[in-house]
């Protein structure tokens, strides 16, 4: 006997930064949902597509949402990025300049809450369940708001930083770590050829997992993370020591973009912020590189050691997903459908202690998920702790 038809309409969207694994998650949700009698609507550009909708059946809203089919999702399901596109739109805090044209006469404040429009637009599309895929401090924080407004939300965690509270794993993290390790090893050839210190800046605004894990894997000698203000002289001393003991005469440090000098502040590219109040980070790697060069004579018999500086940036978030970011999104998508089939909502699908599970969606705004410095980071050696691994989490978080 076939599955019952017309079980409802599921909307799915992706917001925030792109990562490998988003398309496999969209595919997993869609394939399962279609086969079980649901209709699936893909909403474009995250919350941006939801605020742009014109509630007129005759209006062409194809730039904001469209129906998903097996053919569409199969074509994209093994690729990186998100074919639904993404934005950093915060529907509850839309600047006047970003209010859609058809709403500009209605919303005149400098910052506008378009949640009433989002709720009406979801009703206009006939959405019964909404599956947002995103990070905790942007896409999913607004999903919490919608859940409180009685929207039936089942969320999927995504971010390279792996800092969504409540889950051990977020889509995109493994590919980011895999790429960081590979690119660091590639750049070793230049560092070794010139006998320099290699400074690599990686993502990580508030959490240092993307610098910690590659260092733990042996890709770098040292790492500096947002959770601990580092002393640049101590870092210089350690890197000079690492270079001296290396037969190839080079050393490597991974720098989280949110890392800060002792007594300093985060380094931003500009004062401009997105709708979530985030300034664009970038530049700490260059500053560390310059200061290392100036300080190395103190620890190298008066001789300057030159540096190579590289910001890995989007190189670690582009391209196809690795094995883990192909498997976990499949599981997360099916977990979301399991919850919907049970009539449950206001939940976040998660991986915890090696097992798939779910948690209240409010967990994403209840706390910050950051490196436990006393437990996992050696502040004297500026690198991960290497004590006993017995009963530790797989990702050493």
Task: List its salient traits.
alpha/beta, Rossmann fold, four-stranded parallel sheet, elongated, seven-stranded mixed sheet, 397 residues, 2 domains
Can you walk through the features of this model?
The chain has 397 residues and is of the alpha/beta class. It has 2 domains: 8-171 and 320-365, Rossmann fold, CATH 3.40.50.450; 174-316 and 373-384, Rossmann fold, CATH 3.40.50.460. Helix content is 32%, strand content 19%. Helix 1 (22-35) packs antiparallel against helix 3, helix 6 (173-194) packs across helix 7 and helix 8 (232-245) crosses helix 9 (284-295).
Q: Outline of this structure?
A:
The protein has 397 residues and is α/β, with parallel strands linked by helices.
The whole-number mean of residue pLDDT values reads 93
Low-confidence stretches: none
Number of strands: 17
State Rg. 23 Å
Distance between the termini: 46 Å
* Count of separate structural domains: 2
Protein structure class: alpha/beta
Main β-sheet: number of strands, strand sense, barrel status?
Answer: 7 strands, mixed
Helix content: 25-40%
User: What is the element string, with H for helices and E for strands?
Assistant: EHEHEHEEHEHEHEHEHEEEHEHEEHEE
CATH 2nd-level architecture of the largest domain: 3-Layer(aba) Sandwich
């Amino acid at each position: 006997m076939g599955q019952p038809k017309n079980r409802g309409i599921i909307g799915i969207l992706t917001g925030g930064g792109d990562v490998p694994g988003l398309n496999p998650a969209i595919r997993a949700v869609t394939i399962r949902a279609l086969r079980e009698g649901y209709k699936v609507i893909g909403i474009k550009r995250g919350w941006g597509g939801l605020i742009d909708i014109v509630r007129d059946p005759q209006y062409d809203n194809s730039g904001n949402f469209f129906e998903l089919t097996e053919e569409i999702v199969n074509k994209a399901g093994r690729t990186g990025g998100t074919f639904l596109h993404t934005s950093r739109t915060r529907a509850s805090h839309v600047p006047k300049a970003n209010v859609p044209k058809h709403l500009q006469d209605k919303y005149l404040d400098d910052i506008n809450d378009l949640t009433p429009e989002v709720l009406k637009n979801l009703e206009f599309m006939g959405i019964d369940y909404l599956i947002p895929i995103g990070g905790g401090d942007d896409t999913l924080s607004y999903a919490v708001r919608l859940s409180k407004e009685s929207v039936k939300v089942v969320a999927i965690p995504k971010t390279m930083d792996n800092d969504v509270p409540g889950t051990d794993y977020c889509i995109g993290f493994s590919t980011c770590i895999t790429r960081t390790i590979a690119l660091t090893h590639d750049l070793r050839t230049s560092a070794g050829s010139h006998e320099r210190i290699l400074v690599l800046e990686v993502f990580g605004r508030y959490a240092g997992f993307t610098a910690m894990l590659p260092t733990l894997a042996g890709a770098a000698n040292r790492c500096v993370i947002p959770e601990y203000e580092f002393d640049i002289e101590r870092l210089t001393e350690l890197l000079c020591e690492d270079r001296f003991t290396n037969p190839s005469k080079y050393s490597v440090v991974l720098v989280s973009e949110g890392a800060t000098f002792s007594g300093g502040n985060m380094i931003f590219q500009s004062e401009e912020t997105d709708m979530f109040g985030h300034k664009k980070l970038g530049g700490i790697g260059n500053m560390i590189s310059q200061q290392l060069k100036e300080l190395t004579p103190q620890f190298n018999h008066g001789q300057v050691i030159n540096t190579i500086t590289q910001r890995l940036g989007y190189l670690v978030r582009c391209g196809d997903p690795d094995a883990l970011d192909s498997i976990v999104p499949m599981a997360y998508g099916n977990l979301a459908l399991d919850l919907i089939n049970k009539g449950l909502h206001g939940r976040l699908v998660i991986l915890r202690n090696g097992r798939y599970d779910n948690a209240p969606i409010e967990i994403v705004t209840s706390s910050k998920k950051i490196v436990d410095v006393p437990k996992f980071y050696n502040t004297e050696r500026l690198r991960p702790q290497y004590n006993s691994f017995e009963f530790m989490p797989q990702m050493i978080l």
